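INFO batch 0412 | record 1 of 1 | parsing
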Amino acid sequence: MSSPSRVRNFLPATLSTTLLVGLVTSQATASAAHRKPNFIVVFCDNLGYGDIEPFGSTLHRTPNLNRMAKEGRKFIHFCVTAGVCTPSRASLMTGCYSQRVGMHFNERDGWVLRPVSRYGLAPDETTIAEVLKQQGYATAIVGKWHLGDQPEFLPTRQGFDWFFGVPYSDDMTERFWKKDGSKWPPLPLMENEDVIEAPCDRNGLTKRYTERAMEWIAKHKDEPFFLYFPQAMPGSTSTPFSSPEFKGKSRNGPWGDAVEELDWSMGVMLDQLRELGIAEDTLVIWTSDNGAPINRGPNDFRRGSNRPLHGRGYTTSEGAFRVPTLVWQPGKVPAGTVCHELATTMDLLPTFAKLAGANQSETQKPDGHDVSSLMFKNDSTKTPYEGFYYYHQEQLQAVRSGPWKLFLPVTPVRAHPHFNAQRKPQNLLFHLVNDVACANNLAGKHPDVVARLSKIAEEARKDLGDKGRRGSGQRKRGEIDHDPQPLLLKTGE
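INFO prediction complete | emitting tokens
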């Protein structure tokens, strides 16, 4: 067969030029079509379901998230696997329930890793970053890690090329830890494995994270990349932080200021992706690690809102587990659409792996599923979950199947959204579509559903354990064999 250059010699000049341009264009189109997608996950801290306008907030102004929802897809039944940050983040990173990877509880720290802990995500667990790195991706995390602060557990040992951020929560500042008497260091800001500032200026974190993240995206725009962007705000303090440009500007005090700065950050990112010409090549996920802590008063939104859902963060309520989630990729994700099916943070690893061309053999079998069809298709695709589990530390408190959620009659009662010590535990069955606020117990009317979900609960106990019972599928958490050391600025810095 003749080469394109030899054929061109026998054609009129104008036609030859046209053919050449067409060939180059078709090759470029083919190359673009085969380009692996970029992935960005924005993972806010303690942001509630009702804290942003696309999910019903009338208090916080979020025009950029409104734009993202208009141009993308809103997931209204997107769940995390825990009501607090460490186990939730472990599930996102590994695609597994935190109970499977041992990150749900330990005797020293409780259910959230504290500074100077000997525990962390086991180095032999497979993370999203490791899966994508094997497929040729540049990988970075900008923001809050909270899966171990010792060198063995840092992001740079878990598949990330670059880390800029804090190793744990913004409220874990200098103090003595009462359980073992260890002293926590000043909150460190890190680059890779070095502390570059301590204590870090929490007021400037959102702005600094955004600037550094945008620099990194621009640097890697010509290759496939994965950016994990776990924002520090609204955060774990009662009065979140924000930069001077946003402080005091919202209608809801520090919480509102922080939320509106997060919206600004998202706008900067969406604009840059378009300016760089890579918006259509980039799948962006906006979500939260768990619901808002909320204040006790029904109309007190100083610590966020989970409305119209029931309950607060740190529990197994819908307000803790169901989080505001937006999916955006122009030309790929149908604009202005809503997904009503259950999906979870555990699904990101298998979904990204599939889209990046990874084989199942290259990953440990996750609990999550490939939900790319829920993101990209306009059909009647159903959730892949037959059952979904709600754990509070070691205790299985509830299960979901389809629209039904069954709270089990657990004992002892601790941090339960519906039970208390003065009320005898009983089966509680809620229809999560018809009864968004979980106000009507239908257990007596649907014993068949209670029986089916109780069977699913027993399967969870066998695999992932329960209070006082170890599951057959549980793996060990990471643990160092020497005394943990605080993360400090080097002498002289």
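INFO post-check: The domain at 388-478 is CATH 3.30.1120.10 (Arylsulfatase, C-terminal domain).
INFO record closed
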